[in-house]
Amino acid sequence: MLARTRTRNKILLVIAPTLFQCRKTLDAFGVHISRVGEIRSVTKALQLRGWTPGTPFIAADREQWFATAAGRELSLALDALMLDGRVRVASQTELDELSKPELLDVR
To answer: I need a surface site. Which of 42, 49, 51, 102 has the fewest CB within 10 A?
Structure first.
């Protein structure tokens, strides 16, 4: 039996009603854009389905989300999934790791 030796990159959800707001959230938390392979932008409530329990996320300016129906729906879904343990706020350690530029292997 073969064991898996490849480690999977951790995924960070960046949650906001628009992609522009997702980018602003990355900047606000200091997450380096070169880590895009480890980041998933979530702009709709349905995109919150199916994540592994405990998936970390960041979000900013949630009080502004209620300006639109889609933003309100996203915020309510996020609250429900946090209560259920499906997603959690990213730790400072995780954010510190993602704030460093990713080194590219150019062999």
So the answer is: 49
Least reliable range by pLDDT among 4-8, 74-78, 80-84, 98-102: 4-8
Least Cα distance to 59 among 40, 46, 37, 83 occurs for 40
Between CA 13 and CA 89 the distance in angstroms is: 10
Q: Which position has the higher pLDDT, 97 or 80?
A: 80
Q: In angstroms, rounded to a whole number, what is the distance separating the alpha carbons of residues 89 and 87?
A: 7
Q: How many CB atoms sit inside 10 A of residue 54's CB?
A: 9
CB contact set of 104 (below 8 Å; sequence gap of 6+) = none
